[in-house]
């Protein structure tokens, strides 16, 4: 990988956008590498939690609109956008819980990359912007789907129409960020969160994630049916009996994801 770094430690896979000189602006190559990485992670049972972050004190300044053209034939614009769409979907479809660890700027596609994660932890100096309108563009990387579900339609339109930069505290007040911490405490907090998730039952978490992601697209009856099917799967794993025995023995369970 040339534009991202992927590291693994005790069940936590960290994906770091790594173009610090450009505030981690996403090139075509970065989209390619993110897509390959997310698809690879989705197949790995040992990857229990995914942390997405940026190098050099910044998260992501969006797509690099001024990147040099590739040596090959020019790509059709719609095809190029559909490729970025595949990256957003690959992130969304990850069965593992995902955490965005945000320092510095998260704007445009970088903003929606952060908000597309299951959990968002931000340093107190982080800034967010749906900057598209200021670049003559409309929302992408899932922003039109994520924002209304996080903040409601009117606030989503305000963020999209004006493209203002908002602070981490403002983003938290809108419900876009779970936690805002002093910059020096962000790493330790995310590490602790990730460790708690690694110790959780992976199959059950994956199903809860799927149920919640689908919640606004189904009826109550469908949701209850889906919950019943998910619980049936859980009771067929070794993790649920392990949790019950651990409770009886007054110890922490050891979940294997099978």
From TrEMBL:
Protein name: Unannotated protein
Transmembrane segments: none
Annotated Pfam families: ECH_1 (PF00378)
UniProt cross-references to InterPro entries, sorted A to Z: ClpP/crotonase-like_dom_sf, Enoyl-CoA_hydra/iso, Enoyl-CoA_hydra_C
PANTHER family to which the protein is assigned, alphabetical: EG:BACN32G11.4 PROTEIN, ENOYL-COA HYDRATASE
Lineage: unclassified sequences, metagenomes, ecological metagenomes
């Amino acid at each position: 990988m040339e534009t991202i770094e992927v590291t693994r430690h005790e069940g936590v896979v960290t994906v770091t956008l790594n173009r610090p000189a450009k505030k981690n602006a996403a090139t075509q190559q970065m989209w390619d590498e993110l897509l390959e990485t997310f698809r690879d992670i989705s197949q790995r049972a040992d990857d229990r939690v995914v942390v997405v972050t940026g190098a050099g004190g910044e998260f992501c300044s969006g797509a690099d609109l001024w990147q040099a053209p590739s040596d090959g034939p020019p790509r059709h614009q719609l095809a190029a956008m559909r490729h970025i769409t595949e990256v957003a979907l690959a992130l969304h479809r990850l069965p593992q819980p995902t955490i965005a660890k945000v320092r510095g700027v998260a704007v445009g596609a970088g903003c929606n990359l952060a908000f597309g994660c299951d959990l968002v932890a931000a340093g107190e100096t982080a800034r967010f912007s749906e900057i598209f309108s200021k670049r003559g563009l409309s929302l992408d990387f899932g922003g039109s789907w994520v924002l209304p579900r996080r903040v409601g339609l009117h606030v989503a339109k305000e963020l999209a129409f004006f493209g203002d930069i908002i602070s981490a505290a403002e983003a938290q007040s809108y419900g876009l960020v779970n936690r805002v911490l002093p910059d020096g405490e962000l790493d330790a907090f995310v590490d602790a969160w990730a460790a708690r998730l690694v110790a959780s039952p992976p199959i059950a978490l994956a199903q809860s994630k799927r149920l919640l992601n689908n919640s606004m697209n189904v009826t109550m009856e469908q949701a209850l049916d889906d919950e019943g099917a998910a619980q049936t799967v859980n009771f067929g794993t070794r993790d649920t009996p392990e949790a019950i025995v651990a409770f009886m023995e007054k110890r922490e369970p050891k979940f294997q994801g099978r």
